[in-house]
Every structure is written in structure tokens, then in C-alpha cells.
Design brief:
Radius of gyration: 35 Å
Low-confidence stretches: none
Number of domains: 2
Strand order of the largest sheet: 1-2-6-5-4-3
Shape: rod-shaped
Number of helices: 11
Distance between the termini: 62 Å
Length: 316
Amino acid sequence: MGMREEPPRDPQEWTWHRIGEAASPEAEALAGSKPELQRWYGRLNGRISNHTGVRTHAGEQDALYGTIVTSRDGETLRQHTMIHYYVTRHYLVTIGLDLEELCGLTELELSAKMSTCDSSLDGFFLLIGEALNRYMAGMDHFEEQLFRLEAEMRENNGMRVLDEIMDCRYELLRWSALTLPMREVVAAAREVFMDEAEEAVEYKRTRLRAERIVMLEKQYEQEVETLLRMDDSIGSVRGNDIMKTLTVFTAVVTPVMALGALWGMNFKEMPELEWPWGYAAALGLIVAGTFAVYWFLYSKGWTGDILKRNRQKSKH
């Protein structure tokens, strides 16, 4: 894609230089025609990460410039695509703008919106605002995923649920990594343009949108951390229940094991072997001993929680 100059409603006020690739004759020609762009353009080669820079105390040549990573791999968080930008009071330069990746607008929709912008700052923050708007749609999907996970956690808490919680944590980290440079740009714009930024409609709209995203990210982060703490607590409670159940079971079957071991010995002189009613007496003693141990544990309240919880689960 070559260079495209897309003027807004009043082309005398500002111009948008839209260039497809940094390594192109159009980009080199533009940088050669504007001395203030040469240093910025010279550093684009090899740029693979987010960057925000400001140029102040240069009068009309004050500028906001940098690079924004617009998409990342869901597994490794490595960058996929990025946009380079340079904004002054009179013109906007973008290199590598992918409409579908950045904001999901068509060329016609973008042209219609850009034609309403009164300044280069407005035009730039219209792009940033549309990108944030698309990210917010993705975060709405994340919210639904989080609600489903919370409902699933009430029914069944296992390793799969824990894996899904960790997936949500990584997903939130990915959204934060994508929106952070745009939030930084919003803050840096006022550093460069001061009150002019506050008067730009699209800047104010984008700033409010960024604040909403920060609010949502903090809320989702708290919810994910709460789910992790709940999973840890549930695991501890279940571990205690298992140990308690095993302890109670061991105590209850102790008479069976003890008497079984006693009468399983192979000594020659065992008078009980000659008793005609010995088998019935042994069974009775085993049952009575087991019942006595169980009744002792029950009277102490050491089995109540286990039994009540099991009955509640069976009702559900």
C-alpha cells in the first residue's frame, strides 16, 4: 500500500498521511520532505515493541509519536501487528495501519468518521478510540466467560476449573498488554498539546473510554483473584474433609481389624475355636464394637459435618 493523503472536512487545517509500510519509497519521501520526521523514521527499522515519545517546546512542531502493538499471540503474548504514528498540530502520519486489526472499520466508514474531525489530534484519537471500543467488545466476551466459570465452579471444582481460571488470568493479561500503550498515549497527548487536547472532542471521548477499560480490568482482576482464593479454600476444605473421613473410617473399622487379626492367628491353643457359639459371638462382638466406636464419635460431634454435607449434596 502506498501513501495516501486523506484530508478531513477542511484540508487546509490538517492532513493525514497514511502509509502502508515503513520500508517503502513513499515513507522515505515523506520523511525527506519533513526534517522533524527524519529522526523518528530512522528509528522505525527493527522496532518490535510499544513505544511512546513526545516532542515539546518546538512550537508548531510539538509532536506525539511512537509505536503501538495492535495484536498479540494468545499463547506467547508476542506481537503480531503494529502501527507507527506521528502527530503534530497540522498533520497525522500513520504507518502500517490495518483497519480490520485495529478497529474493524471499513474504508468507507473510516473516511466518513475522519471527515468530521477538526484537527489531527481529533483524527488520531478517533483511531485510538475505535481500537479501544473493539477491545471493549472483546472484554465483554471475557466477562461472559468469567460468569460461566463462576457458575461452573459452584457445581464442580476440579483441576479443569483451575486451569480455566488460569486461562482467564492470561487472557486478562493479554488485554491489559494491548490497552496499556493506548492509555499511555492518552496521558502523553496532554503532556504535548496541553489544553488543546482537552478541547479535542475525540480525545475526551477516548480518555473516558480508557478510564472505563481501566475500571473493567481492575474489576475482572479482582474477580479472577477471588476465584483463585476460593479454589484454594475449597481445596483446603476438601482436603480436611478427606482426612477427617479417613480418620473416622479408620476408627470405625478398628474393632473389625483388631478382632479379625486376633482370630486370624494360627496358635494351636485357641479355646474359642471349640466354642459352638463362637462364630455368632465373634460377629456380635464385631458389630457391637463397631457401633460403640461410631456412637462415641457421633456423640462427640466428630461425624456430624460429614454426614450433613453428604445429605445436602444428595438433595441437590
